[in-house]
């Protein structure tokens, strides 16, 4: 790795002042599980890293809202989410998904904010959070804004965040009356990078279907949602939805499989994950 400056501000304001909106060689670091690998391989050569580890309670709390939703600080580690009683009450799918997200060593270090800001489409959380209607709270020199997770990603490992913005927290709305499920499809072990991730959330009058890993970004599938919304979800309808999703999703080939293979995965596993959600 090339030499770089590491600074550790004590407040969010100090952290923002240390970032440079015009210099991509200056960036924040949270858990660093992905960033350090990129630096070791030479894919990224920073001049300055702004560590968020000393920001304390401002970014490390998990709390339930009075309505039954969740407020999660950006520096909450994935292992803490996995074990949180509040998360298991309000959005159990998040905790269940993290059981096979990478391995326990990574989950003990990686943070929810870093996971989302990294923008890697192979992560498990983005499609799950999209299906739950979650949003991130971003802070920057221009103020604060709330960004739906489905609008966060703009391309492969890129987001709408500016170089002078940080994810400060994650908001998950109440899930009362909804049933949700996630399907992770891997070529090897359960905690491997997925070839496909599919998340669904079924409400009384609406349906949310999100895909990741097989596409360049995690995203919703609105045509498939429209096909399912307000319809009896019998076996015929579920098969139609699988075919619709396979045609709608802009799947891409990679080391985990060809595009045609992934379309078959989408068709088969959307039906299965919908059945899983309906049985919940």
What does this structure look like?
- The strands form four sheets. Strands 4-5-10-6-7 form a five-stranded antiparallel sheet. The chain has a four-stranded antiparallel sheet with strand order 11-12-13-14, sandwiched between helices.
- With 280 residues, the protein is of the alpha+beta class.
- The protein has helices at 12-18, 35-40, 57-60, 78-83, 85-90, 92-98, 104-107, 112-118, 125-131, 222-228, 235-248, 259-278, and strands at 5-7, 26-29, 48-51, 62-64, 70-73, 135-140, 143-148, 153-155, 158-159, 165-172, 179-185, 196-202, 207-212, 219-220.
- The longest helix has 20 residues, at 259-278.
- 34% of the residues lie in helices and 23% in strands.
- α10 packs antiparallel against α11 and α11 (235-248) packs antiparallel against α12.
- The chain is built from twelve helices and 14 strands.
- The mean pLDDT is 94.
- CATH fold description of the largest domain: Uridine Diphospho-n-acetylenolpyruvylglucosamine Reductase, domain 3
Low-confidence spans: none
Strand content: 15-25%
Largest sheet: 5 strands, antiparallel
- Under the CATH scheme, the architecture of the largest domain is 2-Layer Sandwich
> How do the strands line up in the largest sheet?
4-5-10-6-7
Tally of DSSP β-strands: 14
């Amino acid at each position: 790795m090339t030499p770089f400056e590491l600074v550790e501000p004590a407040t969010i304001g100090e952290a923002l002042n240390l970032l440079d909106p015009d210099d991509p060689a200056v960036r924040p670091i949270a858990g660093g599980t992905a960033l350090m690998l990129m630096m070791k391989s030479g894919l990224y050569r920073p001049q300055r890293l702004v560590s968020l580890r000393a920001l304390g309670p401002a970014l490390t709390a998990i709390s339930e809202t009075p309505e039954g939703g969740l407020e999660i600080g950006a520096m909450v580690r994935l292992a803490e989410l996995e074990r949180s009683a509040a998360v298991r009450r309000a959005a159990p799918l998040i905790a269940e998904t993290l059981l096979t997200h990478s391995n326990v060593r990574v989950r003990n270090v990686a943070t929810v904010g870093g996971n989302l800001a990294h923008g890697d489409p192979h992560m498990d959380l983005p499609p799950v959070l999209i299906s739950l209607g979650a949003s991130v709270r971003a802070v920057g020199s221009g103020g604060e804004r709330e960004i739906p997770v489905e609008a966060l990603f703009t391309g492969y490992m890129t987001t709408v965040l500016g170089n002078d913005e940080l994810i400060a927290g994650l908001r998950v709305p109440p899930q009362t009356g909804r049933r949700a499920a996630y399907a992770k499809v891997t070529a090897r072990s359960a905690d491997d990078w997925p070839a496909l991730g599919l998340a669904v959330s079924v409400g009384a009058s609406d349906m949310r279907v999100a895909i990741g890993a097989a596409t360049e970004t995690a995203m919703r599938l609105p045509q498939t949602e429209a096909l399912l919304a307000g319809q009896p979800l019998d076996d015929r309808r579920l098969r139609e939805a699988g075919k619709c999703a396979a045609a709608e999703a802009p799947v891409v080939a990679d080391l985990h499989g060809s595009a045609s293979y992934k379309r078959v995965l989408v068709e088969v596993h959307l039906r299965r994950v919908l059945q899983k959600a309906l049985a919940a």
